[in-house]
Design a protein that fits this description.
Strand 3 and strand 4 (about 130-140) form a beta hairpin. The protein has helices at about 5-25, 30-45, 70-75, 105-115; strands at about 85-90, 95-100, 120-125, 130-140. The chain has about 140 residues and is of the alpha+beta class. It has a 4-stranded antiparallel beta sheet with strand order 1-2-3-4, with helices on one face. It has one domain. It contains 4 helices and 4 strands; from the N terminus they run αααββαββ.
Length: about 140
């Protein structure tokens, strides 16, 4: 085997797999993109003071939530969150973006939970931005 053919095989043997891996590398979304996705999710799903469309295919809901119908679900969600994210953090799985409850929603929560803390919710977003979900647990925001 000549040096040239050995060099070519070595180059293809080492560089080609690396090139292929780079081609298929999944891109992580940025902090700004994560916040934009989360803010759009909160808006589309009817949590802000903006009107929501019950026929929007992007609506996300649980079976339990929609038992009374889409309109009832959207009415219950309406104006519960401030539309601008207050915090964001990344982890190995993606991003967590935090939203604060509106004053009206906070009062309703305090009625049942009797908490002196300012509360909010987390929106979790996969590292690629392809999966978004809202946490079902409240988070304390006092230390914004």
């Amino acid at each position: 085997m000549s040096i040239n053919s050995f060099s070519i095989k070595l180059v293809f043997g080492l560089l080609l797999p690396a090139f292929i891996m780079m081609s298929f590398k999944v891109m992580r979304i940025t902090k700004k993109e994560a916040i934009t996705i989360a803010e759009r999710y909160v808006l589309v799903n009817g949590y802000t003071s903006a009107p929501a469309d019950s026929t929007d295919p992007r609506l996300s809901y649980t079976t339990e939530e929609v038992k009374g119908g889409m309109e009832k679900m959207l009415k219950a969600r309406h104006n519960t969150l401030i539309p601008k994210a207050v915090k964001s953090a990344s982890n190995r799985k993606g991003w967590q973006v935090t939203f604060e409850y509106t004053e009206e929603a906070q009062k309703a929560i305090n009625k049942y939970q009797h908490t002196p803390h300012k509360l909010g919710v987390l929106i979790s977003i996969s590292s690629t931005g392809s999966y978004v979900e809202m946490s079902c647990q409240n988070v304390i925001l006092d230390d914004k």
